[in-house]
Design brief:
417 residues; 16 helices; mainly alpha
Length: 417
Amino acid sequence: MSRTTVANLRNEPSKLLKLRGSATMEGAHMLLFAILISGILTMWVPSRWALSGFQLAIFALLAGRILADWRQHRNLRNEPTGVLLALVIGWGGTQLLLGWSVDPFRTLEEILNWTTNLAAFALAFELASHPARRQRFLTGLLIFASVLAVVAMLTAFSSPPGFIAWWIDVGTGLPTLGPFVYRNQYAAFVEVILPIALLRALLSARPALYLVAIALLFASVIAGGSRTGAILCATEIVLVPLLAWTRGLAPGRAIVRVTLGSLLAVASFTLVAGWEFIWARFQEPNPYGLRWDLLRSSIEMVKARPWTGFGLGTWAQAYPGFALFDDGNYVNQAHNDWAQWTVEGGIPMLAILLAVAARAVRPALRSIWGVGLLAVLLHSCVDYPLQQRPVLAAFFFVMLGLAMNPPAPDHLSPNPS
């Protein structure tokens, strides 16, 4: 920047404040990305320090943004979804104050997790107001997820079950996928990222790298063995081009070329990764039998406390009194996020989160890549992608914040500067 430019800015305080605000926003955008990636890479850590560090970083970044906005006399933009998330936090506090929670400590911990979700959403919603900044954030996530897909397949094939990176035993006895200890949670992560790669391939004059990313992401879900994840990711491969075609974002020839290229790349990488494991899982008799039994128990739990719930975060503590069977194993989740939320928070909690889901539909379809968020909400009907791992839930709300702000489309350029 020349001396003349600096002198002019000194003579125009408003322009200088605007420049400083832009630089600060860019730094916050990079910090949020780093915090999110660090949190995902340490999700497997059983000790509390990893999650606490992630949450403190999110809260500190939000506090910094609020302070910066106050200094520049800027008001935070309101979004009804943020109000709904605040209602969840308030409802948990009400359960504590009125003694409705069967485990106050778990409820307090879950209130903290939902506060993190609100902070993550607010940060992403504000930082996404600049289209190029939002696109760079999505590009970074796509690169990270593509690399992680390679690591996930390597660990799925060669790491002992229940071990992270071949040598850290996390005690699950299940195949791990990079830092993910559960296949369905990894699949939910890919469900959010895959539509980004699909849309970029459709809009790019040279889609080859995006096709490779699509194939890597899909093949890693197949290698992990998530049945629902495989179905939803396959649906996205068809749905995203269809949405792009209906919106007139690309000519029909490009739509057909990229769709066929995606399917061919996916088929090729899946053959290399191996399809036998997931095919065997699809052949299991009554594969969702356990989930059905847990759902029936959850329904009985809701009937017992339809309006107050048992307390946020307390499904596992309340479940034994309503269990339909006992095989000696500890059941930690309902394997249905929607049922679990209703058990813990009653019908009011269900109503709030249904409103959150309803508000997500329009921006998800508008951005096109946001259909991955809807896929996760569907996946939540048969598993728990938004339970147990608070960092993964915060990642979901970051992506929701990115999709909701601003109303301008995300597809102006696949490679924003």
